[in-house]
Design a protein that fits this description.
Methylamine Dehydrogenase, Chain H; four-stranded antiparallel sheet; globular
Length: 361
């Protein structure tokens, strides 16, 4: 082996080391969809302090919408909302780069995507068409071109997820102020409506999205029009939701317009956050570890129109996208109190709407 070749090799390796952000852990990546640029941008996540470094981007054929990741963290799925399609990508574990697997037709305005707990089915809620679908996912991450099942629900279906046992699925609708509830067969990927088939939440609530407690039988929904978080008990036997309590996401002194967007819970189930669009803040809540009862812990300013945000898999950091500002606000989560401490702000692009952090190693 020539000395010239060795010198070139060492130079390349040294340059690679310098280019990688100090303290970064290979295998931790943040994906942000840019509705205004039809792309998904990728950032490497520094494992020690949560800082981000932009590494790559992937073009889509339409507006970039909601994202989700398979349970084994090998694949990322995206809603291409303006094109009415669903896209599947392979995640490179070394640099987070996305490689397209396939794109399939879906329907008008797919507003939410999530895999079931096995990762064998892609579940989608449709805002405009008022329906849900299930598509099979093969072992290589490819989405079936034909839906396993398509069910009409009601106007403005806004989210869909299965419970932690993968036996039931819930679909909040901001139009008719209702939550549809289904049993789910993880083998076939098919839904069956429960009896009753829906839970009404009352006028001017607008249940939009929800978070499931990782240990307790409690589901938390945010109300888009009602600017509130609502807790529901989940019956483990029949899947029925029963309303428990509701808390405002706004300070009492605020009288301006507002609508809620994203809701997420920390991996340990201790803290929840809800995005306020209008007040432009993140409302924090603590969940009682035994009962799941909620208590407000503070409201933190963030970027304008925080449509989407994500808590990283370690539960240490939260990243909130400002749809109107084109920036991403990075917060550290206090492990004792749940308070958010903003430590960085990043320019990400036009109309960021969704973010997800993935730890592939």
């Amino acid at each position: 082996m020539s000395s010239r070749f060795l010198a070139s090799l060492y130079s390349t390796l040294f340059a690679t080391i310098l280019a990688w952000p100090s303290g970064a852990v290979a295998g931790s990546f943040a994906y942000v969809s840019l509705d205004g640029e039809n792309k998904i941008v990728v950032h490497a996540v520094n494992g020690s302090d949560g800082t981000l470094s932009r590494t790559s981007e992937t073009e889509l054929e339409g507006s970039a919408g909601p994202l989700c990741v398979s349970p084994d963290r090998r694949f990322l799925f995206a809603s291409v909302r303006s094109a009415g399609k669903l896209a599947a990508f392979r995640i490179s574990p070394s640099d987070g780069r996305l490689s397209l697997i396939n794109v399939v037709p879906a329907g008008v305005n797919p507003a939410y995507v999530a895999t079931d707990r096995t990762g064998r089915h892609l579940l989608t809620a449709y805002y405009t068409e008022g329906k849900i679908t299930s598509h099979a996912i093969d072992k290589n991450g490819r989405i079936s071109a034909k839906a396993t099942q398509e069910l009409p629900t009601a106007d403005k279906a806004h989210a869909i997820m299965t419970d932690r046992d993968n036996r039931f699925a819930y679909v909040p609708h901001t139009g008719p102020n209702t939550i549809f509830q289904f049993s789910f067969d993880e083998n076939s990927g098919r839904f069956t409506a429960l009896k009753p088939a829906r839970v009404n939440t009352g006028e001017n609530t607008g249940p939009r999205q929800f978070a499931l407690h990782p240990k307790l039988d409690v589901a938390y929904f945010d109300y888009e029009q009602g600017s509130a978080i609502a807790a529901f008990d989940v019956d483990r036997e029949d899947g029925q939701l029963t309303f428990r309590e509701q808390l405002s996401t706004l300070p009492k002194s605020y009288l301006g317009k507002n609508s809620n967007a994203r809701i997420e819970i920390t991996p340990d189930g201790r803290f929840l956050y809800v995005a306020n669009r209008g007040h432009n803040s993140l409302a924090g809540f603590a969940a009682d570890p035994k009962t799941g009862a909620l208590k407000g812990i503070g409201i933190t300013p963030t970027e304008a129109v925080p449509r989407g945000f994500n808590i990283d898999p370690t539960g240490r950091f939260l990243y909130a996208a400002g749809q109107a500002s084109g920036k991403l606000a990075a917060f550290k989560i206090n492990s004792n109190t749940g308070a958010l401490n903003r430590f960085a702000t990043y320019d990400v692009g036009e109309r960021p709407g969704w973010g997800v952090v993935v730890k592939t190693d």
